[in-house]
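Hey,

The postdoc asked me to send both predictions to you directly instead of through the lab channel. I've kept everything plain text so nothing gets mangled by the mail client. Protein one:
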Amino acid sequence: MDSNQQHRGPRVTGLGSLPRRVDLYEVGPRDGLQNELRTLPTRDKARLIEALIAAGEKRIEVTSFVHPKWIPQLSDAEELLRLVGRREGVTFSALVPNLKGLARAKEAGLEEAAIFISASEAHSHKNINKSIAEAVAEARQTSEAALKAGLRVRGYLSTVWGCPYEGEVPVSRVVEISRALISDGIYQLSLGDTIGVGTPRQTETILSALLEHLPVESLALHLHDTRGTALANALVGLQMGVTTFDASIGGLGGCPYAPGAAGNLATEDIVYMLHGMGVETGINLDRLVEAGMVAQELIGRKLAGKFLQAALGEREKKASRRARSPA
């Protein structure tokens, strides 16, 4: 089947009714690189973004307009946006924490802003030194200003499955915050398993509660693979109608304010799973491996993505066999 063909309606399988197509929201250049100790040169970040676009990625979070002293790895936001420019059919977004960050983002020509909230009081204070109520109020102010300026606004809700400081997070609180954020005009809310503690049954419980109040198209999943359950949780979301998943090339990422949080769900891992089930993404998996190779080269170490490492291992075996073959 041509991966670029468009189909409508769900496809019924033994796994239930699956969407025909899923959107991947690439967070590697922002959520991935912000957790690296070494700051990459801007030209290298642009090179990675180019590789992601070449693989067919259309929604890429490229940077953050958080104050540089908090995340120095992303202090070159304006320069990076100038370097990558605008691309037809590709949406670049960035994390925008407040009105000051929004002013910088508008000046840089950003098309889409992302706001962020925590579902945990302790994590909210650690992350942004604000209570949940204060954070929601600031997010509302920022999103209203962004919408008036003509930007689309996306939201992140972190620690939905659990908090490194508080443990379990009440589902009722997740629902309350989610409803408030959606009512403020964001087009999509990405639910984060920030420390990777989620299990499939828990994912079903959270989504069931939210879908009583919100349309499924307003929700996305942002899953970390700390305990190896990210793909399992993504499959539950897929079966329940979720069609947008955040992912990071090679599994880059983590959270500087969530001790022990491993990387994000690897983009190539979820693309492999989706394509194997006949779900379209518009992404070329071979080109995605090339982007993973670029990421590894720039970071200077092997990345955690399982499909990436399997594919690179196969390439090494083929190269070794060719080298041993008689001329």
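Protein two:
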Amino acid sequence: MAGSGEVIFEDARSFGEAVGDGGVLLGLDLGTKTIGTATCDAGWRFATNHTTIQRGKWGRDRETLADLIKSRSVKGLVIGLPLNMDGSEGPRAQASRAYARNCAEAFALPILLWDERWSTQAAEAAMIGQDMSRAKRAAAIDAHAAAVILQGAIDRLAGGVL
């Protein structure tokens, strides 16, 4: 959990307090080649997959995210933290933490690191349930996973038990 003056949180309550009274949140599912994005309504009820960004150098990612943050008037970020099944952290979790630090410096928005252990599987199952073709699933999986991550976080922010 972040201390005073910091913007990166692992606790939804502290993040919610830092964001204040609602506002659009941007969820990110960080892959090695792509970033899935999702946004939610200002009342934190519904997360919707947005787009998949091809990852590049940090400068290009920063510009793309800055445009999205500005166009949607984003008030906070929810970044998936890929923990191992036993809750420990590996290289991917450390990379997500580093990315969160970069975002904190670039955007000065509250950031919530959210456990994403089952997000891709949940997104895949939902798309299969919609009878989406394998090719369409491959193109959209990261954005759908970002929506699963963001929905879990907003459910907690709204007082859910997740």
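Summary for protein two, as requested: Helices lie at 12-19, 58-72, 91-107, 119-129, 134-157.

Thanks,
C.
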